[in-house]
## 1
Amino acid sequence: MKRRDFMRAAGGASVAATAAAGAAQPAAAAEEGGGSGGGNLEPDFGAYLDDANLYESAEDLRDQDEVTISVGAGDGLAFDPPAIWISPGTTVTWEWTGEGGAHNVVANEGPAELNSGSPVGEAGTTYEFEFTEDHAGITTYYCNPHEGQGMKGGIAVGDDVPTIDTSGPSLKDPSHFGVDIHEHWVGVSVILMITVSLLFTFFMLKYGESPHTSGGN
Ligand SMILES: [Cu+2]
C-alpha cells in the first residue's frame, strides 16, 4: 500500500469513528435529560434513606385516609412502601408479615415520635400512628435490629415539605444538578473532534506526501 493510500484509509477511519461517537453521545445526553419534562417533585428524605431496602421513590398517598405499611417485606428486612407522602389526618398502620425475624418501628428524626416498642416477629402484629398537623414535615424511622441492613423508612406529611425534582436521570445521582452544562460540553467537544479530524485528514491528503517520495504524481 502506498503511503498516501494508507493515510487516506487512516483518515477515513478516524472520521468515521468520530462521527459515530458524535451520533451516539448527544443521544445519550438527551436520554439523560429526559423524563416527564414537567418536573416530578418528591419529598426529600435526605441521605438517610439512600440505603433503605426497596426504596426507589416515595409513594404519593396524599388522597388516602388510611395507609398500611408491611413490616418484613421483600427479603424480610424491608418496610413496604418504605417511603410515603401523606396528608395530615392520615392513620398509618404498620403490619407485620412474620418474615425476617423480630422487627419494630422507631423514629430516627423528625416531628413524629414513632415507637412500636420491643421488636416482635409474629405475623399480624400491628402498630398504628395518626399523623396530624403536629407531624407535618419529614420523619424517618428504622427497625432497631435491622437498621444497619437497610430496614428504614420515611413519612412525609403535608404539602409543605422539602422536595427534590426527580425528573432527572436518577434520584440518587447528584450529577443531575449539572446536566445542562454537561450536555453543553459534550456537544462542543464532539463538534471540535469532528472538525479537528476533518482538518487533519484534509491536510494529510493534500500535504502528507513526503517530498522525497519518488512514486507520487
Ligand atoms: Cu427488622
## 2
Amino acid sequence: MATAHQPVMRDEVIRLVDPRPGDFIVDSTAGGGGYSLAFAAKVGPQGLVLALDYDRRAVDRLNKLHQEQGLENLLMAEANFRYLEEAVKSHCPEFWGKAAGIVFDLGLSSDQLQDENLAMSFQSDGALNMNIANQGPNAYDLINFRTEKELADIFFRFGEERNSRRIARAIKEARQKKKIRTAAELARIVSFVQPPSRRLHPATRVFQALRIAVNDELGNLSAALAPAVRCLRPGGVIAVVSYHSLEDRIVKIFFRQKSRISDGPEPALRLLTKKPLVPAAAEIKNNPRARSAKLRAAIRIINTHD
Ligand SMILES: C[S@@+](CC[C@H](N)C(=O)[O-])C[C@H]1O[C@@H](n2cnc3c(N)ncnc32)[C@H](O)[C@@H]1O
C-alpha cells in the first residue's frame, strides 16, 4: 500500500545536508520514505542511503518500493535509532564515521496515525496499543495497570498536562468497573473531566504523553544523538525535525553543549541553525501536520578516532 505520509520540511533538510554524488547518508526515521528517496536521488548510484525505522510495516513498504524501482543505493533496516551505532556497524561497517548526513524526522508518520492496529488517535475505535516496534508494554498495559500516581506523572511529564492528577483518578475509577480497552473509551473518560478548550481536543495531551511513554521516544532521542555525531565525517551534517517542545529541548541542549566543546574527547559541532527553522506558511496550509515542526541542524567540525 502506498504511503499516506507527506514529508515535512524535506527541501530545507536536503538543502542543509547538501548531499553530493557518492555520499553516505543515514535516514534514521524512514517512515514513508520521503527523505530517503530524495537523498537516494542526490547521492546517485555511487552513494548509499541507509534508511532505518523501528516500524516493520514502514520497512516492508519501502522494501517493496525498492524492489519495484530497483533502487540499488537504498538499504532498509528495521532498527530503533537508539541503536544507530549497531545498525550502521552491522549493515555498512565501512561507512562508520564517514556519513555526510544523518537525519531524524521524529514522531509519527501519517500511515501510523491512520493505522487502526496502533490506535494512535483519540478518534480510533481500535484497541489501545500505540506500540510501534511491538516490544514492551503498550498503551493498554499502562492505562490499566500503572498506578494512579505513575499515570499522573506520565501525563504531566510527557504531555505537560495540568490536569494530570484528576485525569489519572478518573482512569483509575473507570478501570475498577471494567478495563479500558479502546482509544475512544479513553478519550471519553478524559473528555469528561477536562474543561473544554477551543484549540485542542481534551485528550490531545494525554494521547501524546502515552505515545511518548510507550515508545520511550525521549529516551531513544537522547541515546541516539551522540552516536549520530560520531558516525558523521568532519563536515557531515546532523539534522533533526521535531514536533513538540520536549523533543526540541533535547536537541537544542545537545547541539548547544556539543558546539561549545572544542577539544574534548567527543566531536564538536557548529550550529547551522541558531534558531530552529519552521515550515513556510504554504507548507503548513498544504500539510497541517507540519505546523509544529522545528528543524535544527549542525555540522561536525572535529575528527576523533573511534
Ligand atoms: C515523521 S515519520 C518520518 C517520515 C519520513 N521522513 C518521510 O518523509 O516519509 C517518523 C518515522 O520515524 C520512525 N521512528 C520514530 N522513532 C524511531 C526510533 N526510535 N527508531 C526508528 N524509527 C523511529 C517512526 O516509526 C516513523 O515511521
